[in-house]
Specification:
Layout (H helix, E strand, L loop, with lengths): L6 E5 L5 E6 L2 H26 L7 H26 L5 H5 L2 E5 L7 H9 L1 H4 L6 H9 L6 H6 L1 E5 L23 H10 L2 H12 L6 H18 L4 H4 L4 H19 L1
Antiparallel strand pairs: 1-2, 2-4, 3-4
Helix pairs in contact: 1-2, 2-4, 9-12, 10-12
């Protein structure tokens, strides 16, 4: 059995280190039970509606019931994890999140692969295969995670950071576009925000060339997620742009904690 770790350390090419708290089997099992309850409610409701087809043919009713059960059980995980950036109802309640094992942005193909292989993980019953894989994997990964290159992490609530240490100014040009700010908050993950925050806190420790390159890449990432009008970003340096984004992200998440 591989020795399991509870914390995954990741280091960016620019020298920024951050850690991810890996979810253990117990918390993942509890989240799974919540998700299973949601799926059961959905399949029961659909089955009740489909019962009308039993008046035509019992075979048609059974076929539609089995098909809908499969679609819901697989589609639930894919839909939730993609829409909620790696979370289902159970994972949200347990403060868990699926993400790429290298700390990169979760891809749709990864979400599909890990959820399709959930069928294998559930064999022969009670997620025995997936449970054994999680217990023997160093990063507590089931087969679906191993195939998709994903991990499940814990996302405990964090206190709002002291934004004064970032050198934030009273005027934030991005704040003038609340609809775009809301879209930015929806698209940027906690992990991406945390990386940007740590980069800003440690910016004075970087040599000038690495500092420019790091904030150029971070700014490009945020700009690719939401495009603000030219009047909001013209003349704004990459580092200033990242500061504006972090200020908006953590102000909102602090109110939600």
């Amino acid at each position: 059995m591989a020795e399991q770790t509870t914390t995954l350390q990741i280091r960016t090419p620019e020298g920024i280190r951050f850690s991810l708290l890996l979810a253990g089997p117990t918390s993942r099992l509890l989240a799974l039970l919540v998700d299973f309850s949601c799926i059961t409610v959905a399949t029961t409701t659909i089955s009740t509606v489909l019962r009308l087809f039993a008046l035509i043919s019992q075979d048609i009713f059974m076929a539609l019931t089995i098909l809908s059960g499969f679609v819901i059980s697989i589609g639930y995980g894919i839909g939730c994890e993609w829409y909620w950036q790696g979370q289902t109802v159970g994972k949200r309640l347990l403060h868990l999140r699926v993400m790429d094992e290298q700390g990169l942005k979760l891809q749709f193909s990864q979400v599909v692969i890990r959820n399709l292989l959930r069928i294998v993980d559930s064999l022969p019953a009670l997620y025995l295969v997936g449970g054994i894989a999680s217990l023997t994997s160093r990063k507590c990964q089931r087969l679906g995670d191993l195939a998709a290159g994903t991990i499940v992490i814990r996302t405990p609530k964090v206190q709002l950071p002291d934004l004064e240490q970032l050198g934030t100014e009273k005027f934030n040009s991005l704040a003038a576009y609340p609809h775009l700010v809301a879209r930015l908050r929806q698209k940027v993950s906690r992990e991406e925000g945390a990386i940007a925050l740590r980069a800003l806190i440690r910016r004075e420790e970087l040599d000038p060339a690495a500092r420019l390159e790091l904030f150029r890449e971070l700014a490009a990432l945020f700009r690719s997620q939401v495009a603000f009008p030219g009047e909001a970003v013209d003349g704004v340096s990459d580092e200033r742009y990242v500061r504006n984004v972090v200020e908006l992200l953590f102000e909102q998440r602090g109110r939600q904690s």
